[in-house]
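Anyone? Bumping this.
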Amino acid sequence: MVSALDRKLLRDLGQVRGQVLTICLVVATGITGFIAMQGAYQTLQQTRADYYREYRFPEVFASARRAPNRVIDELRTLPGVSLVATRVVEPVLLPGGNGNRPASGQIVTISDHERQPLNRIHLTRGRLPDPVRSDEAVLLEHYAETHDIHVGDHIPVVINGTLQNLHITGLGMSPEFVLVVGGDMLSSTPGSHAVLWMRYSSIAPAFDMDGAFNDIAITLQPGASTGAVLSAVDRVLDPYGGFPAFARNKHTSDHFIESELAGLQAQVTIIPLIFLSVAAFLLNTVLGRIVELQRPQVATLKAVGYSNASIGLHFLKLVSVIVLLGAALGITLGAALGDPLLSLYRPYFRFPDLKAELQPITVVISIAISFLAAAVGAFVSVRKIVALAPAEAMRPAAPPNYRGGGAATWTEYLVGPAGQMVLREVTRRPGRVIASVIGISLAVAIMIIGRFASDSIGHLLDLQYGRVMQEDITVALSDPIPAADIDTFAAMPGVRHVEAINELPVRISYGSRSRDVAVQGWPEERRLRRLLNRDGAAMMMPSRGVVLSDILAERLMVSVGDTVDIEMMRGDRRTVQVAVSGVVRDMIGMQGYMRSADMFVFTDGIETITTLLLDVRPGAIAAVEDRLRDIPSVAGVSSPAEARTNFEEQQGGMMLGMSLVLAFFASIIAIGIVYNNARIVLSTRRRDLASMRVLGFRRSEISTVLLGELALQVVCALPLGMWLGKQATSALLATDPENFRMPAVISLQTYVFAALVTVIAAAISGFLVRRKLDSLDLIAVLKTRS
Amino acid sequence: MTARPESGEEVLRAINVSKIYRMGDVDVHAVRGVTVSLHAGELMVLVGASGSGKSTLLNIIGGLDTATSGRVMYRDQDLTHATDRVLTNFRRDHVGFVFQFYNLIPSLTARENVALVTEIAQNPMTPEAALDVVALGDRMDHFPAQLSGGEQQRVAIARAIAKRPEILLCDEPTGALDFKTGVRVLEVLERINHELGTTTAVITHNAPISAMATRVVTMTDGRLQSDVRNTNIRKAIEIEW
Ligand SMILES: Nc1ncnc2c1ncn2[C@@H]1O[C@H](COP(=O)(O)OP(=O)(O)OP(=O)(O)O)[C@@H](O)[C@H]1O
Ligand SMILES: [Mg+2]
């Protein structure tokens, strides 16, 4: 049996159903975001923990040039060390073919017989390599998928300079390769770096590693000091060309997961916070208005014996029903979005099984925070209710107190009587107007935040493919060629000019810090590549020394004038000291640049060209590309223009989807605020508006009064929202990924888009309220006692 | 000039009650030291010029408002400094109000408006029975907006009597009604007073209504001007104005 008070509640809700619906949607959107993202966060967190545990992800990582197997025992006995696993890890090149571009990769050995103590492989297909076969390997599933390679296929791999065909016996993944980035992030999309697991005895000899290892994984005893173990391991490995050991938090794959999780966590807090604050604000205005309209009713309830608590509860119930409906919708949508959201991570992160799981506590929390929004929204009104004396039931509500209403002021000349009414209303309730402006500006900001990523990437592509890379075709060579061979390329019909780049894998160190990067040797005379300084302007290549990417310089903490150690990672691994002669702006990746001639110190004067840049006559590009593909030493042919188009095609759909979703989110906020405000203005001004109509004002004239305030709010909110969006993007970029730097760029289109969506949302709300106004029943309004 | 009614024990008593409204720097003395009692079963009519403090006094003895000074007693219970909670319980359990402006909840039907009170009362009639008393049994499912002013006022009376209150306080129950409808409302009050023995106080501008009272109290300028027992009680139906 529904009590009379609850019936009143239901009918009151019915009275304001438009407002109930819009607030519901605002709450639902916030809760959807919370549930989906919190679910994704927890799933990623939990899956990662399970994966690390089950497949034995180590806690300490180290590498050396070449350490004999007996060193293992020394490592095992170090205090704090629990398990030690050693192996050989070596870079390889996959020449491509089959429509595939050449790719970088690495061979990772697994022990011949016993199960891997650490870094176990999760086989998704096939079997492990046969220890007696030297040409079998398990391939990283992610790479296999992006390159359409299947179990049983043979793929060409350049192992220590020799081309070999490896038989793929299985596909797998491992906790150390949840995300694999090989080198340059733009050209190497996720899944473009190969990992090949091979039996130790079958491949170690190829790298002269028989009875030795160069990669160490360690787990710690409970309570062991990581720092102490790191330095102990460094001491043991030092005689064998050891590189500084590092803990799990420095591991690239884990680092990326960690920063993604941190980002998610920030969003899990921010997005629901924005939406629920807006909801609380809307509830506050709507409930405030209802209570104001219902003063006599509240007083009557008190007079007939309802307590403050039960009346307060009555109104709290009213807002609770609204947020509960919203929360229910949000929970349903959020749960449904869990898997699709996680699937967005699939192109980047590979876990054995990533399945969204909604924890009951998340649902409870989401309901709790919805109620919190309701309580915050109802707070002011409930306080008013408590303060209301029951004797009020005996007299009509006092008319609102307008100030300065009398004589026409200078503003009236400016804006006319309708404008004057708007201004008076605005100055009478500045709090509500300011809150609305902030709310609408949040909607604008959300859209800017949603689209800036694509703006920034677009800017980055402009820089990379428009300003840095000037060539028409980039040719990657499978084997370094001697300088003399350039002539054969230059002689191809259509080719106007060729420049050669020497690239060497190196480790650059400064003090205790080091990074594995590539150094590019550039020709003396060059016009197909540019170096950009920190302001994005082209700069000269200094006459000697090495020029570093700004990110690399920051990571190593070096500046121009310092001397770094550059160790070649091939051949005899000689180390040369080079002065840093410049720092350039590289948006993506970290590398060094030197003059080709200066790099002869690594190669004993032999120029080994790895990349060719071709300037080709327009119209001849396709023909030149075809001819290039027939040359055996050519591993890959690409054109910056094409790369850019590819990237945009690949990302375009997702970006569009994302910006539509956010536009939808933002519209909900904008509509929620504008519609609710319009309804409240309508209900406060009903009598005035009806009287004006009776006095002969036209509908259009009275809608000016009604909609003028809304227009004013939107006009104020647009610039504020744009500013907020800009601030938020800068704040978001303050997070610090290892080798990637996003410029905070917001395009004009984004500003226009955000403004347009807001204005359209506002216009729709205005239209809906205007229709209500048109159907205003003059007699009914004037008959009722105010 | 004061007449002490012999009948009935004292139910409500105001002792030297004053009420001062502070309006900025002006003090409005709405009630100035009034001492008056309400006796069981009587039908008191309170008359006086507009602004003489009738509503204020009634609100104070009904527990809707608190006095600035003086005391208010309900039987042996001192309501003077009672908490909001005690006053709420007092109103809920003992007092029925009929407001000049009806004060029905517009979103509830006649029946539901009555149910609003019967749901929280200890020994109520059914809403249907209460509406039958005011002869609105056939309009129970109508919303206030669908009822005339007199009908709304009768719903308000039904709502006030449904909990069988000990005390019924009515502030100008006929104020907004025409003569004929007003008389019907008065008849209802009279019947309730007779049949249920409800102690009743009615404020009115219409001096002729005093004719149906057992006692007539007159207020002027916040003070009690006279308190007279009516020896010649007329039936409501005989009253004209
Ligand atoms: N809330 C208030 N604030 C200030 N003054 C008030 C308030 N309520 C009543 N008054 C003043 O107290 C005095 C008595 O008011 P009250 O309502 O009791 O008069 P009344 O006798 O009921 O008049 P009426 O017959 O017109 O209803 C009046 O002067 C009135 O202006
Ligand atoms: Mg009065």
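Late reply, but here is one note on the structure posted above: Residues 640-694 of chain A form the longest helix (55 residues).
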